[in-house]
Design a protein that fits this description.
The chain is an alpha/beta fold. It is built from twelve helices and 15 strands. The protein has a seven-stranded mixed beta sheet, sandwiched between helices. The protein has a four-stranded antiparallel beta sheet with strand order 11-12-15-14, covered by helices on one side. The chain has a two-stranded parallel ribbon with strand order 1-13. Strand 11 and strand 12 form a beta hairpin. The structure holds pyridoxal-5'-phosphate.
Length: about 375
């Protein structure tokens, strides 16, 4: 199958709209997994203000603060660490590139599969060798033990795991910090998971210089276009990454919005709880409706996306949804260990979840 690597990620609205002959705004994108009701009004206001400000020193006109001082202070306060233990990035994706440089220098990486394709992408930048840790595809919606990992120098883990939605228990992750020279923990979706923070590795950072935690703000706040993520880790490691990257990796608008989003830990907590209630409510609703469809089984998931498998290939179903209903689901053929019978669906608002179920039912009936 011919599909350029750049389109193997979800959320390729422009390319898909061009192929279908419609506008990106006409598509319902369930191929990426963003919170459907963000970003909050106050954030849109501050983004607009930042974007329109032309006075000297405004986020649009001035060079961004290379040290991201304000955002690092907010991150430090939020996670109870010193600011030099934090590093904002141009999305989590940029930070994987630098994590991979450390990983390649440390030796063989172990990467759970099926998994997020950006880790191999980042490792390939530095010629980093890696081997798969095959996962059994039997998730549950509560915390579960991380599988027995093969030998290696570096472990990449995603909590909750993408694409299965498995939430790894902290108790099963902690011993891995003794076994691996470097552990790179991607917690991009953890704040969206009800009870997820209790499984975070962040409290173990100070005691484990071989641990890096990477988080994303793009899903939680629905700002994927702005590009904003961050790493938490040992200051010497993060300072090294700063020396490697270009001078202004996080743009001024993203810094301004990030500061606005994270300045108040109480407001952050309220937003996360609202998002987690949505994940629980809509995830359960969508899963139950999918279960009732013929030939489709959803895997239990702790996250705001559901992996489904079919009795037969689901490619025609996905294509039907795309062409006839303008709904995008995630093609899973490029995930190692998955294939034609698998799709991933990002949970939406109730209205859009209904639209997805209606469309799937029509396609199944025909
Ligand atoms: C597990 C996981 N981590 C990180 C990212 C990337 O996040 P960002 O948009 O901050 O680069 C994604 C994006 O799909 C993801 O699925």
């Amino acid at each position: 199958m011919q599909m350029p690597p750049s389109e193997r990620h979800g959320g390729n609205l422009a390319a898909t709209a061009a192929r279908l002959g419609c506008r990106p705004s006409q598509l319902l994108d369930a191929s990426a997994s963003l919170v459907p009701f963000g970003p909050p009004c106050a954030v849109r206001g501050s983004l607009l203000k930042a974007a329109l400000g032309l006075a000297s020193g405004s986020p649009l006109r001035a060079y961004p603060d290379r040290h991201a001082t304000g955002l690092r202070a907010s991150l430090a306060q939020l996670h109870g660490v010193e600011p030099d233990w934090t590093l904002p990035g141009n999305g989590a994706a940029e930070l994987f590139t630098w994590a991979a440089r450390d990983a390649a220098a440390a030796g063989l990486s172990v990467v759970p599969q099926p998994g997020f394709a950006d880790y191999p992408r980042a490792l390939a930048c530095w010629g980093g060798a890696w081997r798969s840790l095959p996962l059994t595809l039997q998730a549950s919606s509560g915390p579960q033990p991380f599988p027995v990992a093969p030998a290696g120098a570096v472990l990449w883990l995603t909590n909750p795991h993408n694409p299965t939605g498995a939430l790894w228990s902290l108790a099963s992750l902690e011993p891995l910090l003794q076994r691996f020279a470097l552990v790179i923990a991607d917690e991009a979706f953890l704040p969206l998971v009800p009870g997820g923070e209790a499984q975070s590795l962040i409290p173990l950072l100070q005691a484990h210089p071989n641990l890096v935690v990477i988080r994303s703000l793009t899903k939680l706040w629905s700002i994927a276009g702005l590009r904003l993520g961050y790493a938490l880790g040992q200051p010497e490691r993060l300072a090294r990454w700063v020396r490697w990257r270009d001078p202004w990796p996080v743009n001024g608008l993203a810094l301004a919005v990030g500061e606005r989003l994270l300045a108040d830990p109480l407001a952050y907590g309220r937003w996360c709880r609202r998002v987690q209630r949505w994940t629980a409510r809509e995830g359960a609703w969508l899963s139950a409706r999918l279960e009732a469809l013929p030939g489709i089984t959803p895997l239990p998931s702790a996250a705001n996306f559901l992996l489904i498998y079919g009795d037969a290939s689901l490619v025609p179903l996905r294509e039907g949804l795309e062409c006839r209903h303008r709904i995008l689901l995630r093609d899973c053929r490029f995930f190692e260990g998955l294939g034609e019978r698998w799709l991933r669906i990002g949970v939406q608002s109730r209205r859009h979840n209904r639209r997805i179920i209606r469309a799937l039912r029509q396609e199944c009936d025909s």
